[in-house]
What we know:
With 156 residues, the protein is of the alpha/beta class. The protein has a single domain (37-149), classed as Glutaredoxin (3-Layer(aba) Sandwich), CATH 3.40.30.10. It is built from five helices and seven strands. Strands 3-5-4-6-7 form a five-stranded mixed sheet. The protein has a two-stranded antiparallel sheet with strand order 1-2. It is globular and about 55 Å long. The termini are far apart.
Amino acid sequence: MTGAHKKEGLIIPADYTGDMDDELARIRQRKLNEMQERVKAQSEGKVLHLDQGNFVALLNAHPAFVVDFWAEWCGPCRMVGPVVEELAMEYAGRVTFAKCNTDDNPTLSGQFSISAIPSLLFFLQGKLVDRVTGAYPKDALKKRVESAFGTAVKRT
Length: 156
């Protein structure tokens, strides 16, 4: 990498001359990694992994955001999972999709009163605008995506 050097695995700008606080360097690197992951996921249409630790950052970073609350033992969740992956590919760059395992994130699930799964929550500019509970077919979920996010998600 031109114009930079590494310090303990962290990328440090070459023009930095002071003593960098290691904690700030780690935070900077983590934020850079998160940004790169978001860009890569959006360009490839991948479903992001969401948990209590990254929820706020992902919510703030993605204006049109759908979260699939699910669990491994849930049969209907396993039916909806591939549909969410297909929608992520179709809406890549316009809507970001993420999955949140309710068993691993009970606090986050409770925060949104998730009492049945699968539950899909639709966030626009950080605000909850719609929710769907149950295993709906792809066409029904596409209609909900377009209803929640408007014309910005439709291909012209």
